[in-house]
User: Which sequence fits this backbone?
């Protein structure tokens, strides 16, 4: 009976260890304490939190975090903030998913290399491992970009609501609270979180700057800067809101016009590669066949 080569046994063992970790990283529920803390920010403190909260996956999370460079963890935390920190994807799970996906790809690659070692296959395995390592980053980056676009689209309408509320006699924070209650998108969620930060004792300036940093939207950052300057120099907040709202609408219209002007350029390549060849075949095909038939006789 022939013994299996050592690389095959090692790869099989690595794949066997990686699959349970992958299942934990993708299917495990969020930490109970973190989920309950989020609920408490909205609904108030529940005295049974300490008794009912049971942290899960602590050992695996610490192991994954210890094996991941600190810069990578910081970048993932920033991407999670841009993506709105989905409850199903805490930082520990994302870090573990990166390691697990890379381990699974590496284990499968070792199995393939042990059967048929070659330079192209080695390069392919390295490419698969690299892509597996960056898959969570790409998913978070895509979700963060979608969220930023949604915030940029909602900003002008939200500023209009806040302008109306301030001109009706409400304070700036009350106007933010009203816009957060009436809104349903990511911008409303960020406004509510900003008010919660202020309510727990964070200075207003730091809370506003944290809002701009979390979202990463240039228009919102410009608005926050204008609000901070208005508060520092005593400028009327209603005038700032009115000016910023008009500017946001103008920029949104300009972006729409820019995208409309880019459409003809983007259509050229599908037109040349897909539509025109088919059109030439349909129009010139019968003519070529008839000419070939005439000269053939």
Assistant:
């Amino acid at each position: 009976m022939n013994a299996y080569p050592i690389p095959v046994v090692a790869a099989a063992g690595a794949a066997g260890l990686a699959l349970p970790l992958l299942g934990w990283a993708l299917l495990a529920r969020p930490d109970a304490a973190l989920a309950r803390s989020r609920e408490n920010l909205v609904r108030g403190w529940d005295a049974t939190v300490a008794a009912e909260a049971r942290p899960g996956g602590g050992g695996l999370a610490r192991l994954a975090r210890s094996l991941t460079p600190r810069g990578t963890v910081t970048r993932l935390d920033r991407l999670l903030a841009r993506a709105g920190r989905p409850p199903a994807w805490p930082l520990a799970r994302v870090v573990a998913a990166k390691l697990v996906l890379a381990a699974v790809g590496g284990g499968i690659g070792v199995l393939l290399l042990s059967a048929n070692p070659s330079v192209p296959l080695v390069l392919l395995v390295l490419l698969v491992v690299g892509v597996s390592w960056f898959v969570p980053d790409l998913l978070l980056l895509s979700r963060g970009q979608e969220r930023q676009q949604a915030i940029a689209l909602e900003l002008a309408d939200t500023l209009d609501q806040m302008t109306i509320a301030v001109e009706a006699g409400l304070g700036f924070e009350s106007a933010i609270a009203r816009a957060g209650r009436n809104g349903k998108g990511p911008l409303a969620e960020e406004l509510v979180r900003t008010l919660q930060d202020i309510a727990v004792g964070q200075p207003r300036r730091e809370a506003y700057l944290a809002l701009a940093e979390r979202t990463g939207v240039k228009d919102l950052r410009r608005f926050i800067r204008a609000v901070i300057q208005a508060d520092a120099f005593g400028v009327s907040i209603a005038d700032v809101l009115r000016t910023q709202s008009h500017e946001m609408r103008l920029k949104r219209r300009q972006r729409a016009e820019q995208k409309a002007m880019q459409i003809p350029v983007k259509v050229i390549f599908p037109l040349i590669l897909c539509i025109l060849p088919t059109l030439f075949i349909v129009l010139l095909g019968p003519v070529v066949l008839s000419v070939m038939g005439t000269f053939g006789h």
Summary: The first helix runs from residue 6 to 27. The chain has twelve helices and no strands. Confidence is low (pLDDT under 50) at residues 42-57.
